[in-house]
Design goal:
Elements: H1 3-33, H2 41-63, H3 69-86, H4 92-98, H5 101-106, H6 113-142
Helix pairs in contact: 1-2, 1-6, 2-3, 2-6, 3-6
Amino acid sequence: MTSDTKRSIPTVTLVRAGVCLLIIACGLALRRFGLGLGLPVVIVKYGGSILWAIMVFFLVALMASRLPRPHIALIAASMALGVELFRLIHTPELDAFRLTTAGALLLGRVFSLWNLLAYGVGIIAGVAVDRVGVAAIAKACFNTSPRSYSAS
């Protein structure tokens, strides 16, 4: 392993963490202020779902940084599918938790095939942001070669 590769893995991890935090902030801001800014309900609802899926992609990328992007995307898609299918399970305790803000953000309230579509769009967007954006940021900020950290 070259010194550039040793340096680039932590660098990309830092950039991915920063992107993940930015995505979380954007998702929370969209849910909190989107309607007040006059954005259509569909943009607020599914925009939040897309951002949630991008966040899941980046969380997986942070935990499994040495995996190629297609594997990261597959894991993120499996997690998103699992969370959506979990919405089909109803108990009084789960339903009570889902009515809280934390429950709505973490588990959602109602199963929706449209959410699965939004998650797919979000994961594809996450792959694109990771491939182009993270590499560019790592190179610009840390003078790290974008090719040295992850396979396509």
